[in-house]
Design brief:
This protein has 119 residues and is mostly helical. It has one domain (2-102). Helix content is 61%, strand content 0%. It starts with a helix and ends in a 17-residue tail after the last helix.
Length: 119
């Protein structure tokens, strides 16, 4: 439960529209994991009820936090958050983006701030 609060709810509470700074790999991937789990649960509930409103509302609610944590993760590896637009290129774009997200962060401070592992 502590991980859920730390890695998922914190993004909504403190970083909902925060495209500045850096995000560690663990913070990014835990947010993605919890988002996928919540999305699956809501899709199951939608299918049981015969509607698609819950998963649609959730998708819109999580859009900005997903973009912001993605940008902060790219900042950690020394890339601009605008690199997320490469996902618009079919197949290759998302592969390149995932490679960037998996990379280890740059040591020390970069132009987006101090290393979150050291803070």
């Amino acid at each position: 439960m502590e991980s859920f609060n730390k890695f998922y709810l914190d993004v909504f509470k403190n970083h909902y529209f925060d495209f500045t700074g850096r995000a560690r790999r663990q913070e990014f991937w835990m947010f993605i994991l919890f988002s996928v789990i919540v999305s699956i649960v809501l899709s199951i509930i939608d299918n049981i009820l015969g509607i698609q409103i819950l998963s649609t509302i959730y998708s819109f609610a999580v859009l900005l936090p997903s973009l912001s944590i993605g940008a902060r993760r790219l900042h950690d590896v020394g890339k601009s958050g605008w690199w997320q637009l490469i996902a618009l290129i079919p197949f290759i774009g998302i592969i390149v983006l995932i490679v960037f997200w998996v990379m280890d962060g740059t040591p020390g401070e970069n132009k987006w701030g101090p290393n979150p592992k050291e803070v």
